[in-house]
Design brief:
Keywords: ATP-binding, Kinase, Nucleotide-binding, Transferase. This protein has 10 helices and 12 strands. It is of the alpha+beta class. β7 and β8 form a beta hairpin.
Amino acid sequence: MSIPTLPEGTILLENQVAGHTFQDSAEAISMLRSAGEGFVFKPLTKPLCAVREKDFYEVVLKSEDGTLKELKDYVPNYHGIEVMNIRGKDVEFLKLNDITHGMAEPCVIDIKIGRRTWDPLATEEKRIVESSKYVRCKENVGFCIPGFQVFSINAGKMKRYGKEYGKSLDENTVIEAFKLFLNADTKLHRPLISKILCSLQKIKNWALNQRKLYLYSSSVLIAYDAKRLKEFICAPSKFMKELTCDELVSVREDPSNWIQVKMIDFAHQFPNEDGLPDTNYIHGIEHLVKIFEDILQNC
């Protein structure tokens, strides 16, 4: 499908590694980004999902509840709703911080958390379709990888891996996928892995303790700048000091902070009314943390 004329001041989000794009169908809409201002725009095209995701960000933004105030640290900053005209129709978009803003060679991976990726209102047909996707990864490690891009330092170019690659992964090959994303063929860089791991551990701890939400089909988005990685590999003395976890994650949205980890995609979040742990999410995030612990231990 052709790309329509985009609203003034916006361009395609070239770092989008998962989700619908204009090429999918006449109804599908890609994510957009502002031209130079550091924002991304996520289209809200399904009415029920749109309400849930808008409500999520509005509640998290304004809440004084401790659990939700902490969650604010782990999601992109929210700047309200923008209405833009796409193909002659007004479309609502979430306006969020672009976590790759300022990155010269952004490496981005989308990790969908949970063995179950359908919400309680899903039709039987939807459940069957969802349960047939990424089966080996979801069943064995509780998450899947719909897509990622990595600027290969050795090859000197950007490489993209889509959903077909993600569907081929299992509990063993998914580790190799993460090493590919981390430019391990150049050298595994401990500060890069440590920063990602510390952020994942904080998300895991939040998930273990919270009883407010059930998260279905929500992702963790990891991004880092391969250009900065090259600088640190060439000058390791810049990271001679072993930083604590709190020091590694203390700067949340600073563009100079070249490693970012955020929770995204909340169109299928539901209130937790029974007070039980969200074991579906916990299972996936615990496995993800364990994989990065193992990678760090072996580098």
